[in-house]
């Protein structure tokens, strides 16, 4: 059972849904009439992105990038591999990058630097989770669902070795699973 691999549940399915609903309402208010492009960072953002856009009531477009740091989450090297690029130009557009978690910030700061070179009208960062204790790069999110402690979390799109993404809650993985 996957539940047996969890040390604790940080946020239940209901708590996540309520917070995402609030974030959607905030984005609806902030982007009224702006026709933003939400850029999901694959794969971790897919569940948050799907839930979030259904809570946004102003017109928007969706696009995706795939950026992964080499190695595992614990040994982020700082190199970013953009394996899938945007389909459309973002010049002059309001861009919202959507990601599952802002951790060291290495991946997202490189991605944001790259997207800024393309001259969007604005670029904001929206993350489900923020883990500020491990931050290395100078980057903060504009929209944060929850601030989490320095523990390995899974669920709602977040994985350990590609597993646990489907969990409807945010859980702390037992260290015995990955040690
Ligand atoms: P940073 O900010 O360190 O994040 O560049 C790179 C990627 O690492 C993953 N990450 C996690 N994945 N539980 C996970 O399942 C975690 O606690 C965790 N911390 C970082 C995540 O994919 C992020 O995009
Ligand atoms: Mg990720």
Describe the 3D structure:
Helix 2 (46-53) links the parallel strand 2 (37-42) and strand 3 (61-69). Helix 1 crosses helix 2 (46-53). This protein has helices at 13-30, 46-53, 106-116, 175-178; strands spanning 6-11, 37-42, 61-69, 80-84, 94-102, 122-130, 143-147, 153-154, 170-173. It is globular, with a radius of gyration of 16 Å. The chain is an alpha/beta fold and 179 residues long. The structure holds xanthosine-5'-monophosphate and magnesium ion. Xanthosine-5'-monophosphate binds next to strand 5, helix 3 and strand 8.
Quick structural summary:
The chain has 179 residues and is α/β, with parallel strands linked by helices. The protein has helices spanning 13-30, 46-53, 106-116, 175-178, and strands spanning 6-11, 37-42, 61-69, 80-84, 94-102, 122-130, 143-147, 153-154, 170-173.
List keywords for this structure.
6-stranded mixed β-sheet; 3-stranded antiparallel β-sheet; single chain; alpha/beta; binds xanthosine-5'-monophosphate; binds magnesium ion; 179 residues
Radius of gyration: 16 Å
User: Helix count?
Assistant: 4
| SSE order | EHEHEEEHEEEEH
Q: Compute the average pLDDT.
A: 92
Distance between the termini: 18 Å
Specify the overall morphology.
globular
Structural class: alpha/beta
**What portion of residues belong to β-strands?**
25-35%
Bound molecules: xanthosine-5'-monophosphate, magnesium ion
Helix content: 10-25%
Q: What spatial order of strands do you see in the largest sheet?
A: 4-3-2-5-6-7
For the largest beta-sheet, the strand count, sense and barrel status come to: 6 strands, mixed
Stretches where pLDDT falls below 50 for ≥5 residues? 71-77
DSSP strand tally: 9
